[in-house]
Amino acid sequence: MNMKAGVLALVGLVSGFAAGATLAAEPEYATVKMEIDVARPAKDVWAKVGGYCDISVWMGFECKITSGDGGIGTVRALAGGRVLEILVAQTELSYGYTQPVKEGSFYNLYHGFMEARPVTDKTSKILYTLVLDVSDKADKAAKDADLAGRRTRFEAALKKMKEISEAK
Questions:
Q1: What three-state secondary structure class fits 66?
Q2: What is the Cα–Cα distance from 150 to 156, expressed in whole angstroms?
Q3: Based on the structure, what is the number of domains in the chain?
Q4: How high is the pLDDT of residue 63?
C-alpha cells in the first residue's frame, strides 16, 4: 500500500468511527479499583467465580457466549443482549474485557479487569478494576454519582464472589 492510500484508509477509519459513536471533546478517564480478601487459594477461587459467564451467578445478569471459545476474542451478551463485552486479556487467574462502540451512544471506552491474586498458599484476594471515560457527565457531582454507583454494584459482586469461593 502506498502512503497516499494508507492515509486515505486511516482517514476513512477515523471518520467511520466518529460517525458511529458520540465522543466528548476531552476524555476524562476514571478508574475504580476494588478488592476483597478471600480465605481460599487463588486457583480455587478462580475455579468457582472466574468463568467468563460466571457473572450471571455473582452479579445476577443473564449471560450468554455469543461467539468465541472462551479465549481472547470471546463475546458475552449480558442482560438479554443489551450489553456486549469482548474478552481482550486473559491469564490463568484473570481476564479483562471491553464494551464495543454502540452506534448513536457516547463511547466511554469501558474496560473491566478481574483477577484472583494469591496472598498465601491458603488465601487470596479478588481484584476488580474498571476504567471508563466520564466526560459525558454534566458535572463533578454526576461523575462522582456514576462512579459511586458502579463501586456499590461491583463491591456487592465481590462480596458474593467471596461467599461463593469460601463455601464448602
A1: strand
A2: 10
A3: 1
A4: 97
